[in-house]
Structure formats: C-alpha cells, structure tokens
Amino acid sequence: MKQVRNTHAKTEILNLINGSDIALTHSDIQKKLGDLCNRVTIYRVLERLENEGEIHKIVNIDGVVNFAKCTGKCTHEQHFHNHIHFNCKECHSVTCIENAIPEISLPAHFIPQEYNFIISGICPKCAVK
Predict the structure, then answer these.
(1) What is the pLDDT along the chain (129 residues), one digit of tens a residue?
(2) Are 91 and 61 in contact (CB under 8 A)?
(3) What beta strand segments (E) does 18-71 contain?
(4) How far apart are CA 84 and CA 21, in angstroms?
(5) Who's near 3: CB < 8 A, 6+ residues apart?
(6) Residue 67, CB-side half-sphere exposure with 13 Å CA sphere
(7) β-pairing verdict for 84-88 and 117-121
(8) Domain map of the chain by residue range?
(9) Nearest alpha-carbon partner for 123 in 59, 32, 31, 60
C-alpha cells in the first residue's frame, strides 16, 4: 500500500472540509487558505484526499465540483456516498443529507455500483429570509 503523506496544505484543506457543514468548491478552499498554496497544489491535494477516502466530490446543478468529508465507511479502495446532495438555488450551497437514502429499482441485468442524487431547492437558511 502506498504511504500516506501529510503536508501542511493537506492538513489545512482537510481541516477546512471536515469543519464545514456544506461542501466546498475549489474556489472556496482557495479563498479560505489565502497564500498558503497555489491552485494547482489545492487540486492535487483534493485528488489525493479523495483517493485516500477522506473526501468525496459532488457536481452541483451548475456543473461546479464541490468537496465534502467522507463519513466513516470510505476507504482508498471504495467510497460509499449513496445519499442525497441538496443544492440550494439561492445561496448555491451543497449539503450531504445522509439520513435520506432513496430506493432505486432498475430493469433486469443492470447492476448499480454507485449513484449521485442532487435535489435542488431552497435550504433552511434561505427559506427563513
């Protein structure tokens, strides 16, 4: 097995993602990190974190890639993210909703391995405004 390297940039990016209630875009991460590292380093770290089973990516309804923490079961071999992702049309936040897992029924001979559900609407913060 490949050795896991921990750099200052990797630690800070993982802390940002783990400390966030919503999924973060590359741009969000870059703004929060300031001058710690450049955009290419951020892309490499995000890819490494995903390969290590620490984070997963979600493509929102606008086609923007967001990154969120993995919950417990993920490994470098396999991710388990068959849950809903909620995309707010107002603030554009993306939230993982773990406790709402849709049931899927496919025609015969189709074997699902993973799926990505994105529901768009208004999040609780924006609904109160």
Answers:
(1) 455 567 889 999 999 999 999 999 999 999 999 888 899 999 999 999 988 888 988 888 888 999 998 876 666 666 666 678 899 999 999 998 877 767 788 999 998 777 778 899 999 999 987
(2) no
(3) 24-25, 55-59, 65-69
(4) 14
(5) none
(6) 25
(7) parallel
(8) 8-128
(9) 60
Binding site for Zn(2+), by residue number, is 88, 91, 123, 126
Among 112, 116, 72, residue whose Cα is nearest residue 94: 116
With a threshold of 0.85, does the pTM exceed it? Answer: no
Which residue ranges are tagged as binding site?
Answer: 88, 91, 123, 126
CATH topology of domain 8-128: Arc Repressor Mutant, subunit A (1.10.10)
Give CA–CA dist 61/88, Å, rounded: 9
